[in-house]
Amino acid sequence: MKKLSFTFTGRHSGFRMRMQFMIVLFACLYAAIGVRLIMLANAEMPERRVAGMPPSVARPDIVDRNNTTLAMDIPSVSVYAEPRRILDLDEAVEGIVRVFPDLNMMDVRRRLSRDSGFAWIKRGVTPAERDRLWALGIPGVGFRNETRRFYPNGVTGAHVLGSVNIDNTGIAGIERWIDGQGLQDLREAGLQMNRNSLEPIALSLDLRVQHALTDELRKAVTRFDAVAGAGLVMDITNGEIVALASLPDFDPNIPADALKTDRINRVSVGTYEMGSTFKAMTTAMALDSGLFNIKSVIDASQPLRFGRARIRDYRGKNRPLNIPETFIHSSNIAMAKMAMDVGIENHKTFLSQLGQFDRLLTELPENARPILPRRWSEISTATVAFGHGVAVTPLQASMGVAALVNGGRLIRPTIIKGAPLEGRIIASDVVTPQTGEAIRYLMRLNAEVGSARNADVAGYFIGGKTGTSEKVVNGRYSGESVLTAFMGIAPADNPRYLFLTVLDEPKPLPETHGFRTSGWNAVPVTGEIMKRTLPMLPLQPYAQRPASPFPAMVRLGAWGAERFAPMRQLPLQSVAVPTASPPR
Questions:
Q1: pLDDT score recorded for residue 377
Q2: N or C: which end of the chain has fewer CB within 10 A?
Q3: 156-168: per-residue pLDDT in tens?
């Protein structure tokens, strides 16, 4: 059989060459497409090149104890650019700045001129701004849907709530604490969340009480031309903080304001010599020591001498004083003598047991270590006895005084509603039941005939202790610059709430007769706070005086105790007894 053979002519040879050319062409084309796909596959998406993780991850709502919203996420839009895709740089810059006139044109141009795949233009733009920019149709400019933190109550509760940064990460206050409770771990794990998938954080704050406290403090700072003010309301049975305010404050919707140096949380970060409020601790220590009892008398007729230093009483009585008189007349001399009799080491031990020597840690990340004497001498014990020489935070001092009147339990304060109590009881039985009754009695007596009488609120049987401390100016104590404080309790026979007011450098007024001490400012301010807030709290007012509020004091015949004897069933009202000395 003949073998078949084909011979291509010139015509067929040209066809074959064309076919080979087309095959090579398509191969190159597909190779180019493949390379481009690989480049795109390996390239990071713009959103994933920022800060190592997706920004604006959702956060749980924050609510008050009555489920009123304090902080929440709301939808937001941010604008970004891909500089490599910008076709007309001048047109892009001009259009962006026209929509966002607050942006610097040179800065925008610099960002868009870089050889990069991503650059933020502006975070958190309004829907109107987004629509205007979208209408310009600038190539290489895009939008990203995000979430933004919103605080519907503005400045109210700012120092408790804290703030977040532009990526919705907590940087202060409870917001920062929330991140440390696992939210940051979820974020780093890349889990997709939204506000509906996260359980709200319920705080112990009551927004109504918080607003009233802040409002009265603000009026007081303005009225007395004070540098600053602070205050709190705390449930002393469980340590829950119902309200906490520090002025000047800030709007957490504008977190940059929180960075101003005068915006610190003065309740948990500021350290102050708390003045005569410390005398409640000194009195409790003296009574608990067994060296003194409620009828003991201390000679306060002469100043105490320590070399060239003198300890005097402010408008003192210059005579021997019993314990109740020592308390209501706020005698520095008597307090110092009691502390020195108890002894340096016992004094230090007692204050340490009340948590005054250690940094107080709560959910709030902002806190401070107390300032103690470098060398604790006898004069240190004498001055610390009346609240000078040791600087603590107001929250720390409040915790200590609360332990004296709540049955002897030193409870770590909390901002979280329903936080387990067991793990927050630092110490129990820090004072005996009789000493606790004595302190409650002295605080109530002070509200009836002493320096706290201008804070008394009809129906609530309040008690309290004032404090005025001179501030150190140019290395010396100044009588012209003072810190005034008042701690009140309600009701005094069975306390549920502690109120604290602090005013930094209040000025004297004509109606205060030139005085700037606590009884003329912090006391009446706290009275107004109590009048507004006590009806909001779960505390029923008394129709008449309690039948036997301080039985041990009556039985022991304490000075002034006849006022609280069982037979005195009188309507509960303020009893204002004039005294020769102005309230301190």
A1: 95
A2: N
A3: 999 999 999 988 8
